[in-house]
Amino acid sequence: AKARGRNGYRFYSPSMTGEGVERLRLEAWLRRSLEKDEMFLNYQPQVEIDTGRLVGVEALVRWNHPELGLVSPARFIPLAEDTGFISQLGEWVLAEACRQMVRWQAAGLAVPKIAVNLSVRQFERGTIVATVDRILRATGLEPRRLQLEVTESVIMNTGDARTYINGLHDLGVGLAIDDFGTGYSSLAYLKQMPVQTLKIDRSFIQDIHQDANDEAIAIAIIQLGKSMNLSVIAEGVETDEQAAFLLRHGCNLAQGYFYSRPVMPDDLLRRWLP
Ligand code: C2E
Ligand code: CA
Ligand code: CA
Ligand code: CA
């Protein structure tokens, strides 16, 4: 159950040369990362707290650069968003995650659901519904096995967001609001969206036992989810105490290092195959 060390990873961080030069080099490398096969996905289990049952996995992209080593998504996702590369990358992530689900199914591991992050930029070209539809058909994954994670900014900022969100819902895929509570969203607006899940951001879970505000926010999100008939999952759960707190307050779904770090597909298979 315990993760081996830090998963063997050391993420590259900048500041060896000037920021500007660094950024340009990184951009150029990033653009070629897919053709060079440097991207891969890790998968982090989502579990039911009371039973420990696997209810899903979240796909998280990793970039392994030959010189830099592993570059953190916290660094390259914003870069990919700024340069527009995110549409290509996002499409690759989606396709790879769906292919992996089908592979697990073939290997006898019925992962109930896969969650994939969508950037707000992926909604701007107006093709997101067609893209998801095409990938589902090409891979043969049942739509209900896919859950798309979007932030509040997608719900609130994109002009045609409502249309796209409804379109995705009509395909039969699930929708979750990621990092919930860290952005702005109007509850009235939220109520009109065909969303099934709220993800409590790690920042609220982290200090839940030291910070009364974080505790209050976490409880409020759980209550909100209940009253709107949404399922609520907490991310960044690292301790037994945090899990117990969540369960006590009516949240039975969690994801975090306490259960597992994001892992390679075979590790997931080894650990969860019945
Ligand atoms: P996120 O969507 O909020 O994903 C959760 C992040 O928290 C992941 O970081 C995960 O490894 C980390 N995490 C999970 N459990 C714990 C825990 O118990 N403790 C701590 N300290 N951290 C935990 P990661 O993989 O570095 O990804 C960072 C962010 O990059 C993600 O945040 C997401 O916004 C973005 N990202 C990652 N993969 C993709 C992708 O394929 N597409 C897009 N658009 N964004 C992605
Ligand atoms: Ca996420
Ligand atoms: Ca996020
Ligand atoms: Ca988060």
Automatic annotation (TrEMBL):
It comes from Pseudoduganella dura. This is EAL domain-containing protein. It comes from the Bacteria. Residues 23-274 form the EAL domain.
